[in-house]
Amino acid sequence: MLAGFFRSRWQGRVPLDRLFWRDMLLAGTVINIASSALALLLLGLKLPLWLVLAVHFLPVPYNIFLALAVWRTAEKAGGAKASLMMLGSALWLIATVVA
């Protein structure tokens, strides 16, 4: 089931709107916030910095996957809306990695 989730997004079989708005912006952002909150909690508990950073950056591969999936799907769809979603996914990826 999990493999199907990733495969369908990578192959562009998920509608671009769902991939961008629900999967990337909503779910991806919630995952990033949860990861950052947990990292802050671990930092407050004075756990090793390497563990805090690992938890904080754990979602980065998933974020990269989502951004690339949006790009691949948007390229197939074409049009101004797809181009804006490509730009939005790039900006979102930068924001999630920097924050």
Structure description:
This protein has one domain. It is elongated, with a radius of gyration of 15 Å. With 99 residues, the chain is mainly α. 21% of the residues are buried. The chain contains 5 helices and no strands. It starts with a helix and ends with a helix. The mean pLDDT is 96.
Shape: elongated
CA radius of gyration? 15 Å
Report the count of strand segments: 0
Which parts are unreliable, with pLDDT below 50 for 5 consecutive residues or more? none
Series of secondary-structure elements, N-terminal to C-terminal: HHHHH
Structural class: mainly alpha
The residue-averaged pLDDT reads 96
Beta percentage is: under 5%
Name the helicity range: over 70%
